[in-house]
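A sample follows:
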Amino acid sequence: MTRSFTRFPAPSAFVFLLTLASLSPAQALTYLVGAGAVPGVCDFNNLQSAINAAASNPGEDFIRVASDQTYSALALSIGQQDLTLTGGYANCSAALPPGALPSGSTILNGAGGAAAPVVSISGSGVRVLTGFQIRNGDNVQGNGLGCGGGIYFNGRGELRIQNVGISQNNANSGGGICFVGTATPTALTIESDVVINNNNAITGNGGGVAIAGTARMFALRDRTYIALNGAPNGNGGGIYLQPPANVDIGSPGYTGNGVIYGNNARRGGGVAGVAPDGSDEYGCVRFFTTDASRPVRIQNNKASEFGGALFMQSHQGMEENASISSRLYDFVVDGNTAPNGAALFLQGDSSVFTVGDTGPRVGLNDFSSSCNESVDTLGAVRCTQSAQCNRIERNRTEDSNGQPTNGNIVEMRLYAAIVGQTVTMKGNIGTRLISWSDGNETDFTVSLFRSALIDNVLTQELFRGFSDGEFRLVDSTVAGNSIGAAHVFRHDADNDNQITNAVIDQPGKLTLSHPNVSSLDVVNTWVIATDTSSLRPDPTALPARGRFTDPERGDYRLRIGSQALDYAPGSTPTPANDVDLDGRLRNFDQGDVSANTRARDVGAFERQSGDRWLPNGDFVGDLRLWFNPEPAFSTWDAAFNAPVSSGGSLILNIPADQTTPTDRRTALTHCFNVPWSGDFQISGFALVAASQNNRDYPVLNWRLRYDSEDCSGPETASGNTFFGRSGTTWQPLTAPLTVSVDPAQWTWNTTIEIRLEVAQNPTSPTATSLFARFDEIEIRKFSDAVFADSFEEPL
């Protein structure tokens, strides 16, 4: 008994139009498979029988599979046909209504059967699998050619899977899925609620998925998880790509983890792309974000040899271009490990390339080259700032026992290259952040724009080129790295390097080691660096510190008192795409606020007019960036803040038995680097105790120093201004507080120390507790701010 049902919709990431000219139109039939508990309802008890029956009916057919019996020792075979298989029905009666939806999933178990995939698919057609758990396939062959433990596809068309788990399958290669395209177009489309986990490629490549031939893989939907798969003797723990196949991954992942998570392999713990020896084919793997708040992520993968997250290798046979490449847009690569190339490892082939050719190439937010159609047509979006994307962080070079190695976070060999923009590389641990050997003599081996290389722990240099190849660093910040070598950058070959509009803040380290600095053609311009002596002399290379907002918390945005502010010339008008690492417009001229007279900040970040001058003067989250001389009594209060503020405030509360009648205590201090001469206005709010006889005096004390970068030198001037003393509402200063900085004495080391203090009320006959709250402390260039009319001064 068969049913003629209207096909229910199945979403697809890619639409294929397939013409089967030899088949005449036929009515779609639906077959029910189950235990047959209700006589006459199930068409088959055997799933392969239903597949065979569908094959004999030309055109598109459907099979609904109940979960009221076991399906074991399976080695299913699907040939040339358009077929949708849906599992998860309680029984055939539940599957009978035309619009019936499954309530769970059906287990397709290969245990106990032949050494074969659980499901094999050949020929052409659109095949859809939904509502299944495909387990325990074993396609490990003695000749090493077994491909696909869970699913093996060799043909043309599309395989679409949704709400499917593929786990605990083994094969020589393609432990979970082996997908080979024999003609174009052919696609593996992974929809939502697909988990490919705990599969293994025993002797070969692709623990989770192996894809080759003319195939293309799409994993663009939410709740997709390629995790905990292994290829211990091969390449690609999660995914293995062999050109001319291509892979596009845009899923935000599953349950908070990245879409490529916790896989392991000899090479390419997360993903490996290897061009076959002697082939002229080209392949590409791309990662991009489809949920602005949840970036695509390659996380916690491990390689025992090369490439914890990604491994890309070109081979012989190419005539002009690279045979393998990767593009990452709005991404996160974090927590991956390998002895070499914990994040990325790129391997070329010296026997095939001539001058002008390139080996494997990785592009990080490089929209100038896209491999295939724009990722935007596949649903790519830009990350929100809060998503913290475009990061390569917390990757570590270590062996299988977790012991440190002498490898590098990003390693390139034989004409490989990396081009990136808007990238943060932070908190990685290894020998070097980036290294290359045998780079391309006619092109940049490393090009980074609008990037921050911060807080990495390295036993040698940040960058090192062991041979030919050039590096370029533009609009970028290098700071806070622990570097074991004497130099930040080292290049052993006599190639050009470019460092432009950059901040390099690495005290105690020379900036560049180069065999012939004086011969450099592309050189350092508009650079703020702690060392410029090792650079080719240039009047725009200035020895100075960066002065960042909150480096201890990884915030390397510039303070208003930084010499990097408005240091470089800007283009006029500013192009719309000329933005900083935060996506904010470049060439924002601070005007006469800064001593510098140009328009562009150097480094990865551009200050805007609304940025706070006094870091954390609104006490958001804690009291950081202030010195606390009374840590037992000066604390952060999350529950209180001034009406114009948010996120908490400072409270000083000293018990009466620990004060004196004339006591005055300092709650917090801050050292402010003055960006220019002139008048500066300090403002803020305070709140004292409600009781009239215990209203202490909150005071803002200031101290001016003309040559003391850290506020430790002798004072030139000082003063006090009191806050209003209402016990019920926050009060501003009772008079304007203006500090005048003499232009004849100002230097970049001029500072104003701001001290928040509390004094006893001298009219009180006995010592009382010292109590006051402070919030929204700020300093700006003088303006006509409104202050309270009254001025109350203690006796």
Notes: Confidence is low (pLDDT under 50) at residues 5-24, 352-357, 784-795. The first strand starts at residue 29 and ends at 33. Helices lie at 47-55, 92-95.
